[in-house]
Recover the amino acids of this structure.
């Protein structure tokens, strides 16, 4: 396990180029961060739609060097800033950088293969204090997807349950597919996403769990809906080395009185996640203990209590 970052700026990618200006379209405090997944779709109409939606600025995160429309689009849409990465960068690191590039109070993350169906209260969303507000997501047939995520402990096994968000204000463990309205100040204070976790599923899970363990909230709004134009992404839930990092930061710490610690009795569980490499398991465990020790007063609960009292 590489060193777990303890400050937000520890985890910002450096190899990127920014193209385009930051000409404000509105003054709602809410900007858009566009993640690009489908490279075959023209983006001119999408930017026209976003221009009408009322966002202050738009950041387009570019990870495909084969896109040749950036120069033309930046001239046509001066409120769009294109962030071009020179190397493969995890989605979490992309959003950490986006939080620094933007200056408004909130940013709305979604994909270029999604369409905004309702957003008449975008200006009101910038007033929210939750670290992330999750919109309702629909498939291409406009059926509501089970994107409300709840944690559950079945015996000693941790798992999640997905359901359709039926009420506004419902709690969700993390934003499905990264889509949500993030409170920029709270996001930065939390430390953003852990860029050392390269499995997107565990990177999201770490962000969501850490948010709730540190007293933040992730809730659903019925006021904004987006639909997918293509297939729904499938998570890779393999319990790989990145799960071990997630486990040590979120599931293993124990909260007592007013702070958390990672007790030595958790080491056997850590070792069983990598039984063939005891030295590596011990290194990862001690690194996890160091990180928990640095942040021990930021915890307001632990995973067992959070899961046992969870109410979506």
């Amino acid at each position: 396990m590489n060193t777990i970052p303890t400050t937000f700026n520890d985890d910002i990618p450096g190899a990127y180029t920014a193209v385009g200006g930051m000409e404000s379209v509105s003054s709602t405090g809410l900007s858009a961060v566009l993640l690009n997944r489908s490279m075959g779709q023209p983006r001119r109409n999408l930017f026209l739609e976003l221009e009408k939606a009322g966002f202050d600025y738009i950041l387009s995160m570019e990870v495909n060097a084969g896109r040749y429309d950036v120069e033309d689009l930046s001239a046509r849409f001066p409120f769009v800033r294109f962030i071009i990465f020179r190397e493969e960068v995890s989605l979490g690191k992309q959003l950490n950088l986006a939080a620094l590039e933007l200056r408004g109070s909130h940013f709305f993350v979604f994909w270029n293969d999604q369409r905004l169906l309702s957003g008449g209260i975008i200006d009101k969303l910038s007033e929210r204090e939750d670290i992330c507000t999750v919109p309702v997501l629909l498939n291409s047939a406009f059926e509501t997807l089970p994107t409300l995520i709840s944690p559950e402990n079945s015996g000693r096994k941790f798992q999640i349950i997905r359901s359709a968000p039926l009420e506004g204000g419902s709690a969700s463990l993390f934003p499905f597919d990264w889509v949500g309205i993030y409170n920029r100040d709270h996001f930065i204070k939390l430390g953003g996403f852990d860029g050392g976790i390269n499995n997107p599923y565990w990177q999201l899970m770490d962000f969501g769990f850490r948010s709730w363990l540190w007293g933040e909230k992730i809730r659903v709004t019925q006021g904004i809906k987006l639909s997918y134009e293509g297939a729904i992404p499938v998570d890779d839930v393999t319990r790989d080395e990145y799960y071990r990092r997630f486990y040590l930061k979120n599931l293993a710490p124990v909260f007592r009185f007013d702070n958390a610690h990672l007790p030595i009795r958790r080491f056997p569980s850590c070792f069983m996640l990598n039984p063939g490499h005891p030295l590596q398991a011990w290194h990862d465990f001690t690194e996890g203990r160091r990180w928990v020790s640095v942040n021990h007063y930021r915890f307001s609960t632990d995973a067992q209590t959070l899961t046992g009292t969870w109410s979506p």
In short: The chain has a mean pLDDT of 88.
